[in-house]
Design goal:
Chain lengths: 57, 392
């Protein structure tokens, strides 16, 4: 389970990191890393200001 | 880098740098780390702040003041304008900062006061001794390090992990975050006021802001309450706003970001750990402003660290003073703002117009928002009944 980041769209703001309930995301300089604790809840994709995230089912 | 410091501050935003500077000035051994290679960049801010709040912490310097503003104009959905927050003397009441330079200047002050600063250094976890926080794991230029400290300050912003590692759940619910997009727009007449456009017409559960950054350019941005985001996104609403309202404007920078707007969280200290600024969710739920709150909290945190060092006690027993002091000041204001925000997001555009019209005969231009709110309540008790506890 995971989310896809469109790196060409992402503005590396860290908002998704702040809402992830399980802390699966991390902002490192200009990219988002996702670890395997992601539960597919979709909150990050919902709040991304530019719509750079998509849940992978 | 040493093996051990008195204080490690994670994050060189305004909150972290003020904490580091204040601790270092008192002679404490301080390490300030920032994960980015450039402090202050990329910006995640509209850069507006009141003069009064700022000058408590740093002497204004034209290197990082992009523009001075006379006051604020709130614009209702039907175009009715309400002026606020002007200075009695007719002078300038607020600033639009240049945060890329401002954040660096603050970090520089911390360094000059004696703090060690490391950039491109990311905290990746917390060290523990007998259950209490005793330092950090850090990565510098791809290498991992263990660095010990008596107290770790989490000043790591909206994406904060330090609190979570320390057992404090700081994750934001969609209702607790404003998700924002902003353009630095040039080729426009920016005017002399910070402008706020209210209403569903522009954006659901937020507002559009225009903060002058000079005569011909401004930060133009908007926020959507996270719970209302998804079908529409800040970036596309902002593009629409630009098309309709400033077709002549040219975009020379894009900023995106999230502001915590959920009000005070349950806990901001643990044994050997203090959270400051956006990491402690101390930004204002109504305005989204967090620069001054982060600096005020950083100052309090540092004063408590200095005491803790004198006593040699870094447990909650001593650090709780921070909790009490920020809640009695910043916290009170956050709770008020949260109540007002929770009501405002429920009002229709017609109701917002009605509120604006009720002020038409009153000169609010010299009043700050906290003075205008009780007047609004008096004029619109039915509409604002939910807020009665704030004013009666
Ligand atoms: C679009 C937008 C507009 C805003 N407009 C305004 C405004 O007009 N006025 C206002 O007052 N406020 C505004 N705010 C809020 C304001 O930007 C924040 O409240 C303020 O920056 C908080 O300061 P801080 O020091 O707590 O955190 P930040 O300034 O966010 O600093 C945190 C720092 O920690 C670093 N960091 C994070 N994790 C780690 C780690 N693991 N290791 C090392 N470093 C780390 C980050 O890189 C960052 O530099 C706005 C916010 C947004 C998103
Ligand atoms: S919220 Fe969106 S733009 Fe911001 S860092 Fe996450 S993916 Fe990138
Ligand atoms: S889908 Fe949910 S759990 Fe997965 S990264 Fe996004 S917010 Fe975190």
């Amino acid at each position: 389970m995971s989310v896809n980041v469109n790196r060409y769209k992402c503005g590396y703001c860290g908002a998704c990191v702040g809402v992830c309930p399980v802390g699966a995301l991390e902002l490192v300089e200009t990219w988002i890393e996702i670890d395997n604790t992601c539960t597919n809840c979709g909150v990050c994709a919902k709040i991304c200001p530019v719509g750079a995230l998509a849940v992978v089912k | 880098m040493k093996e051990k410091y008195d204080i490690i501050v994670v994050g060189a935003g305004p909150g972290g740098s003020i904490t580091a500077k204040t601790c270092a000035k008192a002679g404490l051994d301080v390490l300030l780390i920032e994960k980015r290679q450039e402090i202050g960049d990329p910006v995640r801010c509209a850069e507006g702040c009141a003069k009064e709040g700022l000058i408590k912490h740093i002497q204004p310097d034209k290197r990082w003041i992009a523009a001075e503003v006379k006051g604020s104009k709130i614009i209702a959905p039907d175009g009715t304008q309400i002026k606020m927050s002007e200075e009695d003397s007719g002078g300038k009441a607020g600033y639009t900062l240049e945060r890329k330079v401002f954040d660096r200047a603050l970090a520089q002050e911390a360094a000059i006061a004696g703090a060690e600063v490391m950039v491109k250094t990311r905290a990746t976890g917390l060290l523990r001794t007998n259950g209490r926080v005793s330092g950090i794991n850090a990565m510098y230029m791809g290498e991992t390090h263990e660095i010990k400290a008596d107290i770790v300050i989490g000043a790591d912003g909206v994406e904060s992990k330090v609190g979570r590692w320390g057992g404090i759940d700081t994750s934001l619910k969609p209702d607790d975050i404003d998700t924002c997009a902003q353009f630095l727009v040039t080729n426009i007449d920016a005017g002399e006021y910070s402008k706020f456009f209210m209403g569903e017409k522009y954006t659901p559960g937020g507002y559009v802001w225009i903060f002058p950054k000079g005569p011909n350019s401004a930060n133009v941005g908007l926020g959507i309450l996270g719970s209302k985001c998804g079908k529409v996104r800040p970036i596309s609403l902002l593009e629409n706003f630009m098309k309709t309202n400033m077709p002549e404007g040219k975009v020379i920078e894009i900023v995106v970001g999230g502001v915590p707007v959920g009000g005070p969280i349950e806990r901001t200290v643990a044994d050997g750990l203090i959270l400051v600024g956006d990491a402690a969710r101390q930004s204002d739920p109504l305005t989204g402003g967090g620069i001054i709150n982060a600096m005020d909290a950083g100052k309090i945190a540092a004063e408590v660290c200095i005491k803790a060092k004198e006593k040699g006690d870094y447990t909650i027993r001593t650090l709780n003073e921070y909790e009490h002091r920020w809640r009695a000041t910043i916290g009170k204001q956050l709770i008020r703002s949260l109540k007002v925000k929770n009501l405002l997001v429920k009002l229709s555009d017609e109701q917002l117009n009605q509120l604006a019209h009720s002020l038409e005969e009153i000169d609010t231009s010299k009043m700050p928002l906290p003075k205008v709110l009780p007047i609004l309540f008096k004029k619109n008790p039915k509409l604002l009944w939910e807020l009665r506890t704030l004013f009666i």
